[in-house]
Amino acid sequence: MSPEQILAELAARREHDLPTHGGRTLAYVYDSGLAEADEVARQALSMYASSNGLDPTAFPSLLSMEADLVGFARSILHASDEVVGTVTSGGTESILLAVQTARDAARVERPAMVVPDTIHAAFAKAAHYFGVELVTVPVGAEHRADVAAMTEVIDRLGDRVVLVAASAPSYAHGVVDPIAQLAAVTRERGLRLHVDACIGGWILPWTPGAPAWDFAVEGVTSLSVDLHKYAYTPKGVSLLLHADAGLRRPQFFAHADWPGYTMLNSTMQSTKSGGPLAAAWAVVRLIGADGYRGLVERTLAGTRALAEGIEQIEHLHLVERPDTSLVVAGTDDAVDVFTLSDLMLDRGWFVQPQMRFGDEPATLHLTISAATADSVGEFLTALREAVAEAVAAGPVRIDPALAEAAATLDPATLDDAAFDALLALAGLTGGDGAVAVPERLGPVNALVDLAPPRVREALMIAFLDRLTR
């Protein structure tokens, strides 16, 4: 293929992807609305695409840019010069490394970490990968971590606890956990406390009246913040910060007992492109602290306007008052969340439905970026129309027998043939029997929502397995 043919083919394949700019995709992507930031990021990404962060002595420019980003983070996170940091590929890798580091530092049998049950799923992934028991504690008022309940669990587990974690803010509800109170507990017991600020870490520093959450809180031992979220850099850059070098040291991996080079890694990756790091450095240098302050002001103004607008729409309500830029809306029985998300997509807006959890019903998750702020009025108009249409359409109706099966299945007893049948019943296969993503996800999500978490997980793994064959 010629270069022209290749670019045309790429453009054609993108036609059905969600838009990454314009502020109409309210999950997965973050848009500053600054064309010059996008351009300088593209140029830096291209300039450093072939460099390799595996060996900092071979590419010292990458090492210097990493140091600059960590230094900028220190300046906004109330961090002393003792705070050290590492650039990772994303929030999940930052969290994985925080858990691995805590586990390796403690070296105890049956290690455990204590977290509120609203903690990001990346902690469950870390528990799965590293053999650390994930002990979740139900949250208290306003969906914030219940410090007293977590303290009781910490004391019951005793020396098995290698890490305690909290959110700033939590993804599912958009509220900041009581970090200072939790830090008092962990500090007294000599425990590590990780703050997952992957979303809030580049917003809270410029948020008036924000609660204490960062290294200003004595007892916070590590913190994760994603630059590819509200620093508005291209995907693939997060920071993991530790309060001092001694706390970070178990994060590093070295191996010399083989015939090749001595492997030395600061992250889970060995080879890693310097492109995302260079792009992040370029964007942060371009925007700067004052620029981010302005972007946060726009984002928070848009968030307030959206929250107020939702409260004025019949059948909708706010689940919690947002602390940063995440708005979570609930519906009454007249509106099906999954139908509503489909209807919003029909109007050019991607919103994210969240499945029921325990006794809490499904909700609608909205991530606001600076580029969304100016379009909040347009979004609310579309939302009112979609709510009215959803009320007229009524809730998704699931066959009672299928609903009962979804709620009572034991995934451990199902084989591939049974999973194939379930995928077909869920509407995830086409006429030829091949797995495909349906045009409308509402009926599928409504069915999956009835299933307990373990069945959901098994069904989605089966779907992904077949989708990628």
- The named CATH superfamily of the largest domain: Type I PLP-dependent aspartate aminotransferase-like (Major domain)
Strand percentage: 5-15%
Helix content: 40-55%
Q: Name the CATH class of the largest domain.
A: Alpha Beta
Number of domains: 3
Structural class: alpha/beta
Could you tell me the radius of gyration in angstroms? Answer: 23 Å
Q: What is the number of helices?
A: 16
The mean pLDDT is 94
- Give the overall silhouette: globular
Order of helices and strands: HHHEHEHEHEHEEEHEEHEEHEEHHHHHH
Alpha-carbon distance between the two ends: 25 Å
**Widest beta sheet: strand line-up:** 1-7-6-5-4-2-3
Low-pLDDT ranges: none
Largest sheet, in brief, is: 7 strands, mixed
CATH fold assignment of the largest domain: Aspartate Aminotransferase, domain 2
DSSP E strands, number: 13
Assigned CATH architecture of the largest domain: 3-Layer(aba) Sandwich
Pfam families: Pyridoxal_deC
Protein name: Aspartate aminotransferase family protein
Modified residues (N6-(pyridoxal phosphate)lysine): 229
Cofactor: pyridoxal 5'-phosphate
How does this structure look, described?
The model has no long low-confidence stretch (mean pLDDT 94). With 469 residues, this protein is of the alpha/beta class. The relative contact order is 0.12. Strands 1-7-6-5-4-2-3 form a seven-stranded mixed β-sheet, with helices on both faces. Helix content is 43%, strand content 13%. It has three domains: 41-284, Type I PLP-dependent aspartate aminotransferase-like (Major domain) (Aspartate Aminotransferase, domain 2, 3-Layer(aba) Sandwich); 289-393, Aspartate Aminotransferase, domain 1 (Alpha-Beta Complex), CATH 3.90.1150.10; 400-467, no CATH class. One of its GO terms (molecular function) is transaminase activity. Its cofactor is pyridoxal 5'-phosphate. It holds the Pfam family Pyridoxal_deC.
